[in-house]
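In this section we walk through a basic example: taking a raw amino acid sequence and producing a predicted 3D structure, encoded as discrete structure tokens. The instruction is simple. Fold the sequence below.
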Amino acid sequence: MCSPRIMSEVYERIGRRANVSRRALFGVLGGAAVGATLAPALAARAYATPADATSIVDLTHVLTPQFPVWPGSRQFEMHTVASITTGNGSTGSLGPIGGSAFYLNELRYEEHTGTHVDAPAHASVDGITVEQIPAADLIAPIAVVDIAARAATDNDTLLTRQDLLEWEERHGRLSSRCIVAMHSGWESRVAAPGAFTNQDALGVQHTPGFAPEAVDFLVHERDIVAIGSDTLSIDAGRSTTYGAHLAALGAGKYGIEVLANLSTIPASGATCMVGAPTHAGGSGGPARVLALF
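The resulting token sequence is shown next.
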């Protein structure tokens, strides 16, 4: 962790430089910390940087023990192991920590919880694991394909190759090395118990996803690094063959699932920063995802 002295100096420098540019701010904080500084967790808002009027939107859901997970998966858990006191240290199962007071939690969750990354290894025996995703692929243009109107009346709708071609008619050819994200409006369901997984009486989920042939098109006819969705899966919930996963991850691309706030960024012209985890051998993991435009 950063020492209190270092963080104090960082905050002091930011305070002195009210007109700090995004480039300078990255230099002060480092890329890993900028999300926490500029995009608070309670956000469905854009944050303008004063120097260049660029907006930053947090595409990450706040993770709580109540957040929906894939049916049968473990819910997120957080337990306090040390808490700040006014005495000679912190209390909790760890007891005093070096004579100083710190707040500390233990987290328990499966890798594919909340807004998260799917590494190629998640669906491909030869795929790279999450810490091996090239850093250059974690900062990329993002294209948002909106199928929300259709998903509102057809929960099983798919993002198709035709949707992609129509997007290109309006916005131009997909950018090289881009992320293509499906916006289905599904995040509006996240607070309603059962609505996000949308299971029927037989336990089948009815949620939108990518058609496998659309992913084949993106992998073989366009130059993408990843695909993303605002649902629990890049595949439709009812899928039993997981064709979107196999097509994307099998081709060495990664996935980003359970994105937030896609309706608040432009269909084209934004840049996405994916704060993927780096635990060795991981199949994926929770991520902080930001859009800049």
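Looking at the output, two observations stand out. The helical segments are 4-16, 22-29, 31-38, 148-153, 161-171, 212-221, 243-249. The first strand starts at residue 46 and ends at 48. In the next section we compare this with other chains.
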